[in-house]
Each structure stands twice: as structure tokens, then as C-alpha cells.
Amino acid sequence: MRSNASPFAWWKLLAFVLLMYAATMGLLGNVPHIAILNETIRNLYFHVPMWFAMTLFLLVASIYSIVYLNKGNLKHDRIIVEFTRTGMFFGVLGLLTGMMWAKFTWGTFWTKDPKLNAAAIAMLIYTAYMILRDAIADEDKKARITAVYNIFAFPAFMALIYIMPRLTDSLHPGNGGNPGFNAYDRDREMNMIFYSAIIGFMLLGTWITTLRIRLRLLADKKDGLIVDSKKYASEDLLDA
């Protein structure tokens, strides 16, 4: 028997607390004074965690793509598209915060840096995924084709973001022979803020996604795409 407790789960409160802590300490806490970076190093608490969150959400979408092809449950397709949307949302935020960082450290919003260009290509790959969905009318056909696309899109994304930039010269820390931030001797306080931001953004994105999945399933139910309403009413995602 399901509990009638409030759907506001503990992890949602944790997301709020972690992000408030990360935002407050990220802007007001002590940071090392490093040449060129100076105060812009605070962007480490926002730009990098957003990309970590994006990677998690796109990974979840890729896993559910495999699940959908195995089970053919339309609900899984809705999970795929909403986690992909959230991943793209955090990806765009990551690009914008990265451009701001580049402006104050490299003197321009965009350069020919391999990682910047790879990030843009990765976002275009997932933009093509959304365009492909809109181009197919049949729901089952749309779900199958885009699930296959998503399975291949994620390895391409990982290669573009995390592998290829390390094989060539890049201005980004940790790439092309440039030292990573771990070489800058992050102190305990910085690590606490940094990892709090990562967990906080991941939880926030999960919260947003479960709400969107709930709305999408309710819309499917209204449109008659979901026949067994009792089955979906028992899903935890509807209580997000």
C-alpha cells in the first residue's frame, strides 16, 4: 500500500540546501589568487558541475534508450526525451558560463579551442535528436528510431567532450598538457563547495525532469496513448 506522505522527498530539500550553500560560498568564500584566473576561478563551482550534471542526464537517457528497445514501453520513451532535454538545458548553461569565463580569461567569448568546438558539436548532435523526433509522426516509430539514435549519440558525446580534446592542444585545464585544477591545490573548503554544487545540480536536474515526465505522462493519458491508467498511477515518477 502506497504511503500518503508528502511527495516533497528529502532529496529535494537536500538539492535546495546544497545549491544555496554552493552559490553563497561560491560567490563569497575564499579562493586562491592564481594568475590570469583571479576571481573567475569561482566559475569552477558553476560551469564544471553543470557539465557533470549534463553528462549524468544524457547517460540516463542512453540507458533508458536500451531499456525502451528491450521492453517497448512508451513511458520509457518519455523518460528518454525528458532527461535529454534536461541534459541539453544544463549543456547550454555550461556553454554560457564557459563563454563568460573565456571572455574574462582569454579575452573573447569564443576561440578555436578544440573543447569549445567539440562542445558545440555535441549540442548540435542532441539538437538533431530533437529535430528527428519532430519529423516523425508515428509515436512507436518515433520512439524506436530516436532511441537507436540516442544510444549512438552518447558515445559520440563522450568522445567529443572528454576524449578528443585531450589528444590535442587546448586552453582548458587538464587538456593539451595544461595542468588541471587539482594541480592548483584546491583546499578542503573549495572541494566541499565544488562537490556540493555537483550533487546539487544533479538533484535539481532530476527534480525538474521527474516533474516534466509526470506532465508528459498525464498528457499522454489525456490523449489516449496510455490505456492502463492504473499502471501509470502507481509509478513513482508521477509523485515527483
From TrEMBL:
Q: Which residues form a coiled coil?
A: none
Name all Cytochrome c assembly protein domain ranges: 6-163
Subcellular localization, as worded in the UniProt entry: Membrane
**Among its keywords, does the record have Cytoplasm?**
no
Topology of this chain in the membrane: Multi-pass membrane protein
Known InterPro entries for this protein? Cyt_c_assembly, Cyt_c_biogenesis_CcmC, Cyt_c_biogenesis_CcsA/CcmC
Q: What is this protein called?
A: Heme exporter protein C
Organism per entry = Cytophaga hutchinsonii (strain ATCC 33406 / DSM 1761 / CIP 103989 / NBRC 15051 / NCIMB 9469 / D465)
